[in-house]
Amino acid sequence: MPASPKRRVFQQFARIGRALGSPHRLELLDLLAQGERTVEALAQAASLAIANASHHLQILRQAGLVETRKEGLYVHYRLAGLDVFEGTRALRALAERRLGEMDRIADTFFKARDEMDPIGREELLARTRAGTALVIDVRPAEEYRAGHIPGAVSIPVGELERRMRELPAGKEIVAYCRGPYCVMAFKAVELLRAKRRHARRLEDGFPEWRAAGLPVAQGAS
Description:
- This protein is of the alpha/beta class.
- It has helices spanning 5-20, 23-32, 39-45, 50-62, 82-98, 100-109, 121-130, 141-146, 183-194, 206-211; strands at residues 37-38, 66-71, 74-79, 133-137, 153-154, 172-177, 199-205.
- It folds into two domains: 5-85, Winged helix-like DNA-binding domain superfamily/Winged helix DNA-binding domain (Arc Repressor Mutant, subunit A), CATH 1.10.10; 111-211, Oxidized Rhodanese, domain 1 (3-Layer(aba) Sandwich).
- It has ten helices and seven strands.
- The chain is globular, with a radius of gyration of 19 Å.
């Protein structure tokens, strides 16, 4: 007996649920929220074998969550739309509300470090327009080129200590990275404060900034 229309609808919901039911695939979607990447670049960033990353990406593609384009020998992946990022953000929010383990992880790794007076998006936008804050993007350079906050300077966190002299003394510095659970901005603020710089971090990350409809720039510094 064929499934009822209602059952068929729920089967389609389940396809999305199965595609999201892997920490590796969720991490790949998080990376793609920063911008388009090749399979090879995604595999490296997620510490996966290329064949394994490709397998996970195919599952995401079959569920309509990512799209591809081919350029020469390389396949580039991107999110199928902003709604994919919004879906993963809703999943994150649900986990934060319903899973006690999320609180334990946050208490251990984030809340103790979050005495950094994080700054909100609208406040940061006003500060950058007024010229009262210097914004640094501490993600890898390829993510910066794919999209960044206008006026932000690209200083990957691994380069920050040796490039400290590039940053003007006496000006507040705001660091941002991939999102609220990205440790790069936390590390950047710690390094800056250790050098007696006035530093804060953006409360979330670049994908949330873009999803809010705030200005975005592309290309190199």
